[in-house]
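Feature request disguised as a bug report, sorry. It would help if multi-protein outputs had a clear separator. Right now it looks like this:
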Amino acid sequence: MTGAYLFAAARTPFGRFGGALADARPDDLAAAVMSGLLSKTPTLDPSEIGDIVWGNANGAGEENRNVGRMAALLAGLPTSVPATTVNRLCGSSLDAAMIASRTVESGDADIVLVGGVESMTRAPWVMPKPSRAFPAGDTAAVSTTLGWRLVNPKMPAEWTVSLGECNEQLADKFAISRKRQDEFAVRSHILADTAWKAGWYDDLVVAVPGVDLSQDEGIRPDATPEKLAGLKPSFRQAGTITAGNASPLNDGASALLVGSGDASDRIGSAPLARIAGRGAYALDPQNFGFAPVEAANLALTRAGISWDEVGAVELNEAFAVQSLACIDAWKIDPAIVNTWGGAIAIGHPLGASGARILGTLTHRLVRDRQRWGVAAICIGVGQALAVVLENVSSGSEN
């Protein structure tokens, strides 16, 4: 079997809910980032792309079910390039990258375009279809922006609590204080602001045509623990989770180019990183925030390395509390985690986040000349995914 490599990464700036990207349809966001990614590999003939695997957590609105195919057509790719859309909620685009890596390793395709998109602003309201015509009662529209909807009454109540309540339970279990959560959130904003000012995102972020947004819209460089301490808890009256120490609702898209080593000549560049290990893990739905622990451990085992060898970690910051719980469980140095900022500051457009953290990890490994990195993401309803990357660029350490 051949290896699977990352050749290029791109993402849009992430917009706030109702913010600068509010008027951009999700299929247009996806098309923009596909075009932006391919602009980084100008010698690649798009007809050489064997497949597109795209992540999206909604699909109920303007995504038109298979947003990967819709975006490819809108981006002007040849109609001969096939595309599919996968949904593993927050992990959708990381799942897409994992699927693409298996496709390349098995020889089914040499070059696969992957990524994901979410417009949480434009997520539609839905309502159940009546089982018979002209029902006499009322019905309610349900938002598809985030979380459970139209829940099956057979589901145990403890599984279907809100995402915030799940993480309040995690805070209780591991005695993670509000103070620690707020400090972690402030760190996310400061590091993201520093990374943007240092130009580290310049090679990663591509513009959305017709939109005046040059960087992530939710970063607050003036955030302080004192300011965050003044926010009211969002899920419990005496809880620890607030709008300041959890990821916000966002719009955005991200993309990656995955290929075999033999595809370098057609792509026109050498690979940046090898996908060395993959892990998927699941547990009780209410414990989803802790699931990355074992997903990453599995990925490391399959890569044949240990945490002691890892120089960079990208952990999606769904909530500060679950991020801290995972870092504590891994017993790693927090200084190697999300050094360019995380989702609390940058944002978490569900279907786009997995490819964002994998692309950022790739660039971090190259810039910092680290050999091994881990990308991990928690997923609602009790799941998580993780990928181990090996830096294969000329500047990597051996």
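(second protein starts here, but nothing in the output says so)
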Amino acid sequence: MAGEKITGDAHADEDRLEGNLEEQSQLGGPLWALANAGPNLRESAALSAEADLSELARDGRPRAVVLAGVGTAARTGDILSTVAGPRCPVPIVPHRSAGIPGWVGAGDVVLAVSGSGHSPEALAAAEAAARRGARLVAIGAPDSELQAVAERARAPFVAVPRRAPALQSLWALAIPVLLAGRALGLVPVTEADIAETAQRLDDDAERCRPDADSFVNPAKEMAMNLSGTIPVVWGSSPLAGVAAWRFGDMLAANARYPVVAGELAEAGRGRVGLLDGPFGSLLERDIFADEDDAAARLRLIVLRDDGLEGDDTIPKPDTRRADAIVDLAQQRNLPVTVVNAEGGCALERLASLIAIPDFTSIYLAFAHGFDPMKVPAVAEMKDIVVQRGE
């Protein structure tokens, strides 16, 4: 079934995709991992409390915070930065390669994050932080190399059980990062925020459960709409931009879909030209063209965050670009999906923009007969890298 061709017959494709969804979703695996995001978030919060991150505050506010990690681990740094917001008193610096920046020293904090606890980038960063006297927090799998490095450095370690690949463990890894930020006085995340976000993830998992038909399951419906298209995912604000990049990660890794993702403020400076490109506007489409030979078309997904009502402590997002991009797509007869952020805090609003798209990527993979837990190209690339390094 892998890589089945989209025929152009909408009804036939819908029947085939729905059949694949029902057959493949019984496999559990990645759907189970996403369905447990809420419980994993709560467990991770409890494990962070046991690690006593409060000792980070003993030396006062740091000069900077460096988040060291790659892949999903790096996305936790994006979450920390966007939840901290524009008024964060210190810079939060992502670092996606081995080691740490040359300027890092005793006045800084390094958060080394690795779902497996064996990432070379996180390990090198933790070791470098310990040598330079920076405050270190390590987050990853228990009984791993990263834990050993943290113990040698006498640094806090949050042991996050690895029950699924890191890609499907975003919230379990992100919560210790956020709570480390809270201990440093950088993010105003409360216990109520954590509880509400976990409940949001529970509720969305219930809505996206495998036995719910596509007309009541928003993730299945979005997967059906995306099938055979080139997704363009734009977030309307910095917070929504993080969700957009996350959706791009998930679509590429799980469904093997090419995707353009980012924050609309940047996309509006040039990438909006995609709407008029060969995969964009349908206005000039040849009505006599063979549907089977027609090029795939863009589908625009706008993740929209209009800010919190009544919160005057941070600037409200500028919604004019989101309105404009939807209007432009509709004028060109391009399909548009808008997902609106919901919730009473930044963390919950972010979760509301991530949860359903996460499930969508899995259902889209199932619709094409792919197993999201097995990505041959990734394993083959790792083998080639190891062989050439010998």
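Even a blank line would do. Unrelated, but nice: The chain is about 45% helix and 10% strand.
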